[in-house]
Write a structure and sequence with these properties.
Layout: E1 2-3, E2 16-17, H1 30-48, E3 58-59, E4 62-64, H2 75-90, E5 95-97
Antiparallel strand pairs: 1-2, 1-3, 4-5
Length: about 100
Amino acid sequence: MGVTSSRDREPSAIRIEVGELVLDGFRADPERVSAAFESELTRLVRLHGVPLAADGPLAVDALTGLPPLPAGLSARRLGQHLARAVHEGLSGHGEVGR
């Protein structure tokens, strides 16, 4: 996962690359989960930025220690909850593997 931002000026672009999302134990359409995830993460980054990348480019191999996701969600809600959990990780909550 790579994130690019800058503290001294407003970033002209923020790029987040997610290599793989692993969802064990969920019965939701992966394409719909992915679309909802991307939409919500884009919204959160536009609204709040990426605090962990405030000092410059950041490469993250994994985010762990994130809150559990509720079972039984629709694909859209699952994607939204997942995006919020990832954004929390990019905001300094949880553990970041580099």
